[in-house]
Design a protein that fits this description.
With 441 residues, the chain is of the alpha/beta class. Helix content is 34%, strand content 18%. The protein contains 14 helices and 15 strands. A hairpin with a 4-residue loop joins β2 and β3. α3 packs across α4, α4 crosses α11 and α5 packs across α12. The chain starts with 5 loop residues before the first helix and ends with a helix.
């Protein structure tokens, strides 16, 4: 029998339990300030931070983020929350391929570790950006229980509100910065829903900290299937991909037509043929570099990824358990229009996934009055456009835009596909900067 006094044994046992908890339980650590990254030559010329925010304590659900400060005036510039589509795509895709501050040297790549280069057209020229891996299971976000990985549109929205409040609590210097939420593709279902949830949280619950929401933006957004899918077919017909006969048959027998194609549902392929096509697109060499880079142990260590929380990183984790319980955001857009939040909706005009045809149709359905007629807007890569000219040659027109009542701006980006900034980085930075400043495009 031990001669240790009972009280001493109690405290020793308690200490042992506490040490086990510290070793075995994942806890939120301080954000990681990153000065160097594997593949980038020299110190980073911008401020990069990564970290986790726990958004569901009972299931150990943590959302991972990358935060890049504005290169202009981080204390005053807007704070942007950027999310990818999917659902289940990592925001690292936005950083590496679209509007983030670095990119791969694709042309110079031969084999081995990819080289990173600075992207001068980064949107962090004019804003602070939080690139978030949402929902749980995408990118480097994780949960400690099986239940924690189960998500949905509404759950993802509520978790992002929790994320923002906790993140701003840890970064109070950004509380007064104008807040914008945005993203692209499937996140078109999340963005307006999140904006409304923030609005309601501020107005009705009064929970601190209040979020200084000033607007939202969405690129090539999924909005409502009756507009999105029909717009895809009209787009294919207009581009000469569908014959008149097929187009007429599709209009008459759309359900049957949809079963033989992706039917506009590219994030959740409904059949083998569509799934194979999407996989072929996702397996392009350009995107393969992100797999090589993000799954490198040195990269993970630099980013502060917790060991054992994530297996293979995937650009889009389309196999996560996810319920699509928001079927349309039209009423949500209408509510936000009545509240007067500025919004920017844009399309790459060569995107067939959520085409400009469908986007323009759902915007028209909101029955907003036009305040600035359809017109071209100057492109930074072209000569200034004479907006008073009665006749404009198509080669001299960079983009088109129109504005509606209640602060809604719509724009197209000529020659861009589904991930618009990936195709036209200069034009998209100019568009984004103009809109943030409150100036017309």
């Amino acid at each position: 029998m031990s001669t240790m006094p009972t009280m001493a044994r109690f405290w020793c046992s308690l200490l042992l339990l506490w040490l086990c908890y510290l070793v075995l339980s994942p806890v939120d650590s301080s954000p990681v300030a990153i000065m160097h990254l594997p593949g980038f030559d020299g110190p980073l010329p911008f401020s990069l931070e990564t970290g986790y925010v726990e958004v569901d304590e009972s299931n150990g659900a943590h959302l991972f983020y990358y935060f890049v400060e504005s290169e202009k005036d981080p204390k005053r510039d807007p704070l942007v929350l950027w999310m990818q589509g999917g659902p289940g795509c990592s925001s690292l895709s936005g950083i590496l391929y679209e509007m983030g501050p670095f990119r791969f040297d694709i042309q110079g790549y031969r084999r081995g570790h990819p080289t990173l280069l600075y992207r001068p057209e980064t949107w962090t020229k004019v804003s602070n950006i939080i690139f978030i891996d949402s929902p749980i299971g995408s990118g480097f976000s994780y949960a400690t229980t099986e239940e924690g990985f189960k998500s949905s549109d509404t759950k993802a929205v509520k978790m992002q509100v929790v994320f923002l409040k906790k993140w701003l609590h840890e970064h109070p210097q950004f509380l007064s910065n104008p807040l914008y939420v945005g993203g692209e593709s499937y996140s078109g279902m999340i963005i307006p829903s999140l904006a409304l949830e923030i609005h309601l949280s501020n107005k009705e619950s009064g929970e601190e900290p209040l979020l200084n929401l000033k607007g939202y933006f969405a690129g090539n957004p999924m909005t409502a299937d009756r507009f999105d899918s029909a717009g895809t077919i009209r787009f294919f017909h207009g581009m000469g991909i569908l014959s008149d006969e097929l187009y007429e048959n599709a209009k008459k027998f759309y359900p049957q037509f949809a079963k033989e194609s992706c039917g506009g549902n590219y994030s959740d392929p409904p059949n083998a043929l569509c799934r194979e096509s999407i996989q072929a697109i996702d397996n392009r060499d350009t995107y393969q570099l992100s797999y090589v880079w993000a799954n490198d142990e040195g990269v993970r260590e630099s980013l502060g990824i917790r060991q054992g929380t994530k297996g293979e990183w995937k650009r889009c984790a389309l196999d996560i358990p996810y319920t699509r319980d928001i079927t349309s955001t039209l009423e949500i857009h209408s509510r936000l229009r009545r509240e007067g939040y500025p919004a920017l909706i844009y399309n790459g005009d060569h995107d067939s996934v959520f085409s400009f045809v469908g986007t323009q149709a759902w915007i028209r359905s909101l029955n907003l009055s036009i305040t600035d007629d359809w017109r071209p807007w100057p492109s930074p890569s072209l000569e200034p456009i004479n907006l008073r000219a009665k006749c404009l040659h198509p080669m001299n027109v960079g983009r088109f835009t129109t504005s509606y009542s209640t602060n809604l701006t719509y724009a197209t980006v000529k020659g861009a596909g589904h991930t618009t900034p990936e195709y036209k980085p200069k034009e998209c930075l100019a568009m984004f900067a103009k809109w943030l400043s409150g100036e017309p495009l």
